[in-house]
């Protein structure tokens, strides 16, 4: 009653043993594929962790760097500016992690929140009545009168380039893990299970427990079993090329570190631009939002405090060259895995599974 290990000679196998062998080959194949995948998956997971830690570190530095601008140069509004700054960097973090938001909406929302503070604390520091309606009017007016000139758009442009590559790389790495996990649990067909039993365990039914499959025979069986997995080869090669492109984008002109630390200087330039155009802005705002109550005898011109960009940025970028080194190491490793899915049958037939340097092996029917 044997279905797989049929042979002319007497046999010590039963149908129940064949079923046990089928369960065994399915389990063994899953384990062997998982072993192959482990190193590759470990590298990707490790890079995801390193990338996210480095990114969070960058964000924290850039947020503190930006907050210090208000504490040193624009003290009258420092306390109220803390929340918009925090929201900006939270939004940027969510964007990189794949949230349904855009860099432009995050940056412009920040400048919408900043304008009421700049207007009431720096341009017209005598304003005492900053009601919700008046604040909202100032927020909406910001979009029309553009008090920060080109600087708000500059922030969007600079961040969009560098954060886009970071967002795509983050998503691409997660996709790589998803692909590997899926191939680990690929279902073996009945024909494949039978072929594997015939290759690995049918010799046992003849008492040949030490004989192993011939190399060519093993390759034929494995290629047949893993045809669907090896079809990923072209897409996997393209995926590696995309990772290479994205890491180059991040390390080149769209450098994440420089873009994030440059936010502070751009905000400073934007505030100075608004202060220098204070009289024109006030005239427009009075027409649109009305005139709020003011205290007498307070002039705004004294509050213009130019701030030079601090040199901490250079130190910071040098401190994060290790991030670029990690990127290079990672992409060099991934490039070596280009043929991972094309050569999966060869790798599974390598090692102890097949007979090497021997005159005899099992060809599926007999010892040859």
Tell me what the structure shows.
The protein has 368 residues and is an all-alpha fold. The protein has one domain. The chain contains 16 helices and no strands. It is rod-shaped and about 105 Å long. Mean pLDDT is 84; it is low at 295-310.
Which secondary structure elements does this structure contain, and how are they paired or packed?
Blueprint: H1 15-73, H2 75-96, H3 103-123, H4 132-145, H5 151-184, H6 190-200, H7 202-205, H8 215-225, H9 227-230, H10 233-251, H11 256-261, H12 263-276, H13 278-289, H14 312-319, H15 321-336, H16 344-348
Summarize the structure.
Cell surface proteoglycan. The protein is an all-alpha fold.
Count every helix, treating DSSP H or I runs of 4 or more residues as helices: 16
Q: Profile the largest sheet.
A: none
- Tell me the series of helices and strands, N- to C-terminal: HHHHHHHHHHHHHHHH
Distance between the termini: 26 Å
Estimated structural class: mainly alpha
Count all strands and give the number: 0
> How would you describe the oligomerization state of the chains in this entry?
single chain
Summarize model confidence as the mean pLDDT: 84
The portion of residues forming beta strands comes to under 5%
- Domains, number: 1
Helix share bin: over 70%
List unreliable stretches of 5+ residues: 295-310
Family: Belongs to the glypican family.
InterPro entries: Glypican, Glypican_CS
Keywords: Cell membrane, Glycoprotein, GPI-anchor, Heparan sulfate, Lipoprotein, Membrane, Proteoglycan, Signal
Organism: Indicator maculatus (spotted honeyguide)
């Amino acid at each position: 009653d044997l279905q797989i290990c049929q042979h002319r000679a007497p046999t010590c196998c039963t149908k129940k043993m064949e079923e046990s062998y089928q369960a065994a080959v399915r389990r063994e194949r899953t384990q062997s594929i998982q072993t192959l995948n482990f190193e590759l998956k470990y590298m990707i997971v490790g890079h995801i962790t390193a990338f996210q830690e480095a990114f969070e570190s960058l964000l924290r530095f850039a947020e503190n760097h930006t907050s210090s601008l208000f504490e040193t140069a624009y003290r009258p509004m420092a306390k109220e500016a803390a929340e918009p700054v925090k929201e900006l960097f939270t939004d940027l973090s969510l964007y990189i992690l794949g949230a349904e938001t855009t860099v432009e909406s995050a940056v412009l929302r920040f400048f919408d929140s900043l304008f009421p503070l700049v207007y009431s604390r720096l341009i017209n520091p005598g304003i005492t009545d900053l009601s919700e309606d008046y604040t909202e009017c100032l927020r909406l007016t910001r979009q029309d009168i553009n008090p920060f000139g080109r600087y708000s758009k500059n922030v969007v442009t600079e961040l969009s380039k560098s954060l886009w590559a970071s967002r795509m790389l983050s998503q691409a790495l997660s996709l790589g893990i998803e692909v590997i996990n899926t191939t680990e649990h690929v279902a073996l067909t009945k024909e494949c299970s039978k072929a594997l039993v015939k290759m690995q365990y049918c010799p046992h039914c003849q008492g040949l427990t030490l004989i192993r499959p011939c190399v060519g025979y093993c390759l034929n069986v494995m290629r047949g079993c893993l045809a669907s997995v090896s079809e990923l080869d072209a897409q996997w090669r393209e995926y590696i090329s995309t990772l290479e492109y994205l890491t180059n984008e991040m390390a080149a002109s769209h450098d994440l570190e420089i873009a994030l630390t440059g936010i502070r200087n751009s905000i400073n330039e934007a505030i100075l631009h608004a202060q220098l155009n204070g009289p024109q802005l006030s005239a427009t705002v009075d027409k649109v939002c009305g005139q709020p109550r003011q205290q007498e005898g307070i002039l705004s011109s004294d509050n213009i405090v130019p701030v030079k960009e601090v040199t901490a940025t250079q130190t910071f970028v040098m401190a994060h060259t290790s991030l670029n080194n990690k990127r290079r190491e990672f992409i060099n490793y991934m490039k070596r895995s280009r043929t991972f899915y094309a050569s999966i049958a060869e790798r599974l037939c390598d090692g102890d599974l097949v007979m090497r340097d021997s005159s005899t092996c099992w060809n599926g029917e007999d010892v040859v």
